[in-house]
Amino acid sequence: MRHFISIADLSRADAIAVLDTAEQMAATQSRSIRKLPTLVGTTVVNLFMEDSTRTRISFEAAAKRLSADVINFSAKGSSLSKGESLKDTALTLQAMGADAIVVRSPSSGAAHLLAHAGWVTQPIVNAGDGTHEHPTQAMLDAFTLRRHLAGDDASGQGLDGRHVVIVGDILHSRVARSNVLLLTLLGARVTLVAPPSLVPVGASAWPCEVVYDLDEALAAGTDAVMMLRVQRERMIGGGFFPTPAEYTRRFCLTTSRAARLDDHAIVLHPGPMNRGFEIAGDVADSPRSVIVEQVAAGVSVRMAVLYQLLASTTQES
């Protein structure tokens, strides 16, 4: 694996290998000393051109727990804010000795451009690009789902036969796109639920079902429900739904809707949450919620990705 840009680049075996490695990484995090010496001497640069809390911190924690040095590079206050191009920023980071670049950008395709334009030679990790993909988020979601739905020993297993319902702002969600690709690759059945105005053109060609009624989707039986944040900051001009109250009435995972789920069903959310809008607060805090587990899984999964990209190079040198 040279880069980690898109779930579409992975085979089922590749995806399961990352998840199995993440399980091994998670096992080390219960030890009194959680750091591994694997990436001693390497430098990981977090190039974040878009605001983030969970993703940036978990990538930083992942790299440090593998004993890598970390440079956090924010667009705000940098030369990027003065108009410097992505190419010149990348060349600067390469000249400073970066061994891998984790990039988050508001522009779809930015990570792919960095990886394949020939500007830099380092491995590139996509930490979210525009409305395109967020592959490590999908990986940590699958990691969490597999732990709950694949039995006591999930190693080597996918999510065959499981049904996952993803609800909300599909149109602007890079998380939804990556999850559809990954969960179906792992054998799950995926149903997307959203108002028609928040379903991307061409979603009918995705390997999933698209419906517009949340109660109908839940009535069909589900193993997991993933709620998505409504990204109002991307809804320039508005008009995607009549009112927030109407959206909540039709698409919020309320207490009554959650009560109708099967006993084993779990609830996920990639965060940040708008409590009371897309998910009721008591549902987010309920025993069936695994939202905090998702955050914890992010460190293990990102350790696994960095390990697979950099460990062999480190050992060779």
Question: What descriptors fit this protein?
Answer:
single chain, 317 residues, alpha/beta, Rossmann fold, 2 domains, 11 helices, globular
SSE arrangement:
Layout: H1 12-28, E1 43-48, H2 54-65, E2 69-74, H3 86-95, E3 100-105, H4 110-116, E4 124-129, H5 135-149, E5 163-167, H6 174-185, E6 189-193, E7 209-211, H7 214-219, E8 224-227, H8 244-251, H9 255-259, E9 266-268, H10 281-284, H11 291-316
Parallel strand pairs: 1-2, 1-3, 3-4, 5-6, 5-8, 6-7, 8-9
Helix pairs in contact: 1-5, 1-11, 2-11, 5-6, 5-11
Short description:
The protein has eleven helices and nine strands. The chain has 317 residues and is an alpha/beta fold.
The N- and C-terminal alpha carbons lie at a distance of: 18 Å
Number of helices: 11
Oligomerization category of the chains in this entry:
single chain
CATH structural architecture of the largest domain: 3-Layer(aba) Sandwich
Stretches with pLDDT under 50, minimum 5 residues: none
Overall pLDDT, averaged? 91
Order of helices and strands: HEHEHEHEHEHEEHEHHEHH
CATH topology of the largest domain: the name is: Rossmann fold
**Biggest β-sheet: strands ordered side by side in the sheet:** 7-6-5-8-9
Strand content: 5-15%
CATH-level-4 superfamily name of the largest domain: Aspartate/ornithine carbamoyltransferase
User: How many strands?
Assistant: 9
Give the biggest beta sheet: 5 strands, parallel
Shape: globular
Structural class: alpha/beta
Radius of gyration (Å): 19 Å
Helix content: 25-40%
So what's the CATH class of the largest domain?
A: Alpha Beta
Domain tally: 2
GO molecular function: aspartate carbamoyltransferase activity
Catalytic activity: carbamoyl phosphate + L-aspartate = N-carbamoyl-L-aspartate + phosphate + H(+)
Family: Belongs to the aspartate/ornithine carbamoyltransferase superfamily. ATCase family.
EC number: 2.1.3.2
